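Example 445, ligand pyridoxal-5'-phosphate.
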Amino acid sequence: MTLVTMMTAHYQDILNDNFWLPFTPNKDFRNDPKLFVRAEGDYYYDPDGRAILDGVSGLFASALGHGRKELAEAVHRQMLTLDFTASFYRGHPGAFAAAKALSALLPPGLDRIFFVGSGSEAVDTALKIALAYHRAKGRGGRNIFVSRERAYHGVNFGGVSLSGLPNNRRNFDGVGPRVVHMRHTWLAENRYSRGQPGHGDFLADDLLRLITLHGAENIAACVVEPIAGSTGVLVPPVGYLERLRQICDRHDILLIMDEVICGFGRTGRAFASQSFNIRPDIITLAKAITNGALPMGAVAVSRDIHDSIINAGGEREIEFFHGYTWSAHPVACAAALATLAIYQEENVFAAAGALSGHFLQRLFALQGQPLVTDIRGYGLLGGIDLAPAANAGQRGYEVQKKLFDAGLHLKSTGDALIIAPILVTGLERIDRLFEILTRVLSTIK
Ligand code: PLP
């Protein structure tokens, strides 16, 4: 019996063929299953009780670490008080409280909150809000969106149309809203830039070229991740986002920032748009909004956009025909409220900012390791490009598996590794993360 067969046999009481894993090579998983059965603090535990350091906050979600009792208690209480009501025609206190608590973190005036169930729903909702806004303003012809190569905006049809990742578009191209793409912001001359690269603001002028080609009167919004996360952490060059903002202002194009990964302290401030000092018209959020404890997303909208849509409807008319059964789910709202309270009480965002210097120092010390071809990082978010093997993506996938076996959970996208430690982690766990990573990288041929 091979080791793999023995391992699979060992997990037979857990595995079955019914569960279809998302974004996973399912056949390989069956042969070599990687399972978590428990989590606490910075660690996951496999069925054998082996501790695996969480180097990516679950999936950019568990900013406060795993198993927080305050969240479990808030969720438990809410389940016994009001387990569920939809928010169609009805409200509940948690929804109003969560919206208020969230607004307190957001830039002034960006404080009208539409709750959804995930990041993908937040993105598609933001696109619909942009269209509804322009219609309310009598600019109904504006229905083109501008996105970017290498962008990730979730997997619903709006997000897939925005996507700049070929594998995510393949099979689904040509369906969904009309989207045109700017170039991505990776430049060879910026390799190993720590923080924002100094060169590349000119790439924002792609938006001007698209305006010339398609006409500003046809463009609804420009959608960008402040830091393009899922593609391997592309930090915006100095001046790039500022230039996008100026161009959008000049042409009445909305600027939507997708902060599903960057939001809630990842960059050392509540939101990356604050770290980069840019005021978007709409921000999309999810993941760490509940510390990953329950599914939830949100769209934060400027008062002007909100009021334009609401005031376009009559007194007894639904102004915006959109929403989900789980929009403002009472239990998710309770989890969000408890999470946001901890962010504030423990000063989590500033603490993350303070840890960033050490994190980036350890991250950039990997320069010169075999296989490493570029490193990027900002706040507590890092990306490492690895030299590809025979097939694109194979190296990243194999390294990610080896890291798991060595006791570290990281995300790979293509041949890039992504690191996003728990925000309340300590120096010694940052060191441990990089010790494992260095050891594994040094053994790969
Ligand atoms: N937008 C961005 C920037 C993301 O990184 C993600 C997920 O990683 C999404 C949207 C989609 O979020 P979800 O997986 O919750 O639908």
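Summary: The chain has a mean pLDDT of 96.
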